[in-house]
Amino acid sequence: MPELPEVETVRLQLLNKVVGKKIKKVVVYRLRTVAEDFSFATRLKNKTIKGINRIGKLLIFTFSENSDLFLLAHLKMTGQFFYIDKKGQVVGGGHGNKDNENIIFPHKHSRVAFRFADEGILYFNDMRLFGYLKIANKSEMELAKSRFGPEPIHPEFDTKWFITTLLQKKTAVKVALLNQQFVAGLGNIYVDETLWLAKVLPTRKCNTLTKKEAAAIATASKEIMNESIKVGGTTFQHFIDTNGNKGNFSKFLKVFGKQGTPCPRCKTIIQKTRVAGRGTHFCPKCQK
DNA sequence: GAGAGTGTTGTAAC
DNA sequence: GGTTACAACACTCT
Hints:
By secondary structure, the chain is of the alpha+beta class.
């Protein structure tokens, strides 16, 4: 579950499902997922989830019993949270791959399970094992937080600062936007979408951008992020209904994965290249 | 069988 | 210090 909008959707869903619940038992299926922490399960036992915050794509759980205890959760490429209530119904979710069908838990990609006092169970699934759940104290949590720059969708996002800083960078604009220390939350998909909307080529060097272009990027990223939070929610709904509708995401995308098809704006064929080691999609005509 | 993949980090090299 | 390029992580899908 990569991009910020989906992480935010998961956060909101989890808020409804697990906040205020006491963890009765934690089962770790794969030690790797909890950073080889043998005390992971015991340290979370009998703790009540107080809240769930998010910075960038990192989820931060807080607990009622101990204000110096945090659970950091990063989904990376394929991490998913599923909440199963006591009737066995799945009411939380992931991002719509095949694993969402025929749900039987725990299944082979389940890495950690949290059983609550009310018999509900929260599963963390992660096919590729890149994601992690990590216990942290306050200073470790602050350190993790400090690795993220401001989020474009934050109401107090400083657009002036963004423009000034962006224009000073010497990297390709796509590289800059993917850098979570600069701005948090934009992933590969939405960087391509943002740059298409802003009519800027991903390979453009930041210090060759005009102020107007930089401002367009800021505006576009906000628009894309906000719009995609809605889409993320929609994707999520489809998962909950388990209707097998998994392609909803792509309906909203304008360039990502659309190579070979006409640009929705100017009908030129969308091209795909590689920038910063990532698949990169753009319109060679209307992006400059 | 080969290649690509939604994210991040570390390292080496310039 | 900035930046670039790449490997690594483990697994599935085309």
